[in-house]
Design goal:
Helices cover 12% and strands 42% of the residues. It is mainly beta. It has one domain: Jelly Rolls.
Length: 125
């Protein structure tokens, strides 16, 4: 459904609906039927939430700013262009060190718990 609606459509991140997840964390989601991109704008001092995903790997890419990305308790310093694989089932979280800090997460397959968020983009096109 999403792939058919988005095929051949140019979309700018500024056009994607933004959600405030919690203070210091804003998210935009773009997804097809097979892959999901989650753009996060993060603030220094945000509430961190260590968690894991049992069903999928996560690819993390820092586009702007600097952050410590913790995987299984180990901090990995990341800056613009840094990428990191978060294996499924492993606890992880990010701590922004500068602002703005933009983190792009890639999920394949798309996260089922974000399907409704991703579908909102089709409504605004």
């Amino acid at each position: 459904m999403l792939s058919a609606a988005l095929a051949g459509v140019v979309v700018n991140w500024d056009d994607v609906p933004e959600d405030v997840i919690r203070p210091g964390v804003r998210r935009r989601v773009y997804a097809t039927d097979d892959v999901m991109l989650c753009w996060h704008s993060l603030s220094v001092g945000m509430d961190t939430r260590p968690h894991s995903h049992d069903d999928f790997d996560q690819l993390a890419l820092v586009l702007e700013g600097r952050a410590d990305y913790f995987i299984d308790g180990v901090a990995h310093e990341m800056g613009p262009g840094s990428m990191l694989l978060v294996p499924k089932g492993v606890e992880h979280y990010i701590v922004p060190l500068t602002e703005p800090c933009i983190n792009l997460d890639v999920f394949a397959p798309p996260r089922a718990d974000y399907e409704d968020v991703a579908a909102r983009l089709v409504d605004v096109l």
